[in-house]
Amino acid sequence: MTQVPNTEEIKKGLAGVVVDYTAISKVNPETNSLLYRGYPVQELAARCSFEEVAYLLWHGELPTPEQLAEFEAHERSGRALDPLLKRLIDDLPATCHPMDVCRTAASIQGARHPRAGDSSREANLTKAVELFAAMPAVVAYDQRRRRGQELVEPREDLGYSANFLWMTFGEEAAPEVVRAFEVSMILYAEHSFNASTFTARVVTSTLSDLHSAVTAAIGALKGPLHGGANEAVMETFEEIGIRTDETHEQAKTRAKAWMDEALAAKKKVMGFGHRVYKHGDSRVPTMKAALDDLIAFYGRPEILGLYDGLEQSMDEAKGIKPNLDYPTGPAYHLMGFDIPTFTPLFVASRIVGWTAHVMEQLESNSLIRPLSAYNGPDERHLD
Ligand SMILES: CC(=O)SCCNC(=O)CCNC(=O)[C@H](O)C(C)(C)COP(=O)(O)OP(=O)(O)OC[C@H]1O[C@@H](n2cnc3c(N)ncnc32)[C@H](O)[C@@H]1OP(=O)(O)O
Ligand SMILES: O=C([O-])CC(=O)C(=O)O
Questions:
Q1: 10 Å Cβ neighbour count for 281?
Q2: Which alpha helices (DSSP H) does the chain contain, by range?
Q3: Closest Cα to atom 5 of ligand 2
Q4: What is the best residue among 185, 222, 272 to mutate for testing ligand 1's pocket, by most ligand atoms within 8 Å of CB?
Q5: From CA 273, how far away is CA 262, in angstroms rounded?
Q6: What is the pLDDT of residue 8?
Q7: Most exposed residue of 123, 279, 282, 324, measured as fewest CB within 10 angstroms of its CB?
Q8: Which residues contact 234 (CB under 8 A, 6 or more apart)?
Q9: Is the ipTM above a cut-off of 0.90?
Q10: Residues acting as catalytic residues
Q11: Span of the secretion signal (predicted)?
């Protein structure tokens, strides 16, 4: 007889299941808040650099000026693109998704690491900082080579975000743009047991290594139900049509009509909804403010019109709120990134959260191995 699973026990997608403790971040949908090591993420975004936030997530405390200087020196010394990696990237087809390039880069960095077999906290911290330092060069160079442009060498006199933009565009970005980019990096850095972080913890729980965990996490982030949504948001804007000569109201009207049609056709619209937040994503107001600054800086009211139109129609029709990928999509577009580079930007930031979770998992490890309820054929035998 086919075993009927006890549906009470099955939690599809692990929805609502509490799997373990974490001291890294607290996502609280009731109060619509997100704390990194106890600090509201909005405060961190307003007052800290991304480097300080990365240090906080890894170490549990914000750095002293001396600790920050030492950390920054370490990070800045690891920014150059490994020549072997550059050759390998050059050999990858330009048709492959930039997320495949990120995934490959993380894997190669692991394969070449002199301390590959060492999973001590000290070795893992070093590996985490190295991945954090190296990924911007990969993302920036990959976008450039697709445009037929040369590699831009990193600048050690610039902070993380300013250097990232420098390596991507080959010119110094305006302070307004650097700030908006920095805010996005801080907001993307960590979000408890999301799909990619959980993937990293599953890999780590087998006592595999940090680079394997990050490589797998990049694969999980790629999907449009997770990190890939920031690209899909901009594809939606493009499908509706970006008309730079339009007013805010004109663009909003067209976006509302598009959304009404999409919802009538029962489409899932990327950039809306969240597994944990059901009344709005705690990070959206901060990122929306950064997007507003960019829109004012670039003088692009039609982008705000599209943004407002989609958001308003979705809210009126289904009460579903935007998630963080909704404002970051148009923000990265305005900064000049190509759409397929958006999720790699998320990777560059979330590396911090993933690696913090790898280290936390190892501090109190238990193999992650849930059960399944069998609903296949009854036992049978070969004749
Ligand atoms: C940084 C991040 O990774 S944030 C997430 C980024 N992902 C996206 O933006 C993808 C679009 N959103 C979604 O697919 C979902 O909202 C998820 C996957 C994020 C969360 O999903 P779940 O918690 O499993 O909710 P689920 O998908 O079951 O949705 C519940 C209901 O809301 C609807 N819904 C949820 N999100 C959306 C959406 N974006 N567009 C239209 N309808 C939606 C579903 O169709 C479903 O309706 P139903 O009950 O009538 O069938
Ligand atoms: O938490 C989640 O499910 C998705 C995620 O990574 C985020 O929102 O940053």
A1: 26
A2: 41-47, 50-59, 65-77, 83-91, 98-111, 121-146, 160-169, 175-188, 195-205, 210-221, 229-240, 248-264, 284-298, 301-318, 325-335, 342-363
A3: 194
A4: 272
A5: 15
A6: 73
A7: 279
A8: 329, 330, 332, 333, 339, 342
A9: yes
A10: 274, 325
A11: none
Residue nearest to atom 51 of ligand 1 (CA): 266
pLDDT 10s digits, 50-109: 999 999 999 999 999 999 999 999 999 999 999 999 999 999 999 999 999 999 999 999
Q: For residue 9, what pLDDT is reported?
A: 82
What is the distance, to the nearest Å, from the Cα of residue 199 to the centroid of all Cα atoms in its chain?
A: 14
Structure tokens at 238: 């493009």
Q: Residues 6 or more apart from 162 whose CB is under 8 A from it?
A: 155, 172, 173, 178
Using the 8-state DSSP alphabet, how is residue 14 labeled? G
pTM of model > 0.95: yes
Cβ of 270 closer than 6 Å to ligand 1, yes or no, is: yes
N-terminal to C-terminal alpha carbon distance within the chain: 19
Residue in the structure block whose two tokens are 């060492």? 118
Report the length, in residues, of the chain.
383
Instruction: Give per-residue pLDDT as tens, 187-230.
Output: 999 999 999 999 999 999 999 999 999 999 999 999 999 999 99
Model confidence at 1: pLDDT above 70:
no
Q: What number is the average pLDDT over the span 106-125?
A: 96
Ligand 2 mutation pick, 17, 274, 325, max ligand atoms within 8 A of CB = 274
Query: Which domains are delineated in the chain?
Result: 25-226+341-364 (1.10.580.10), 229-335 (1.10.230.10)
Q: Alpha carbon 146 to chain centroid distance?
A: 22
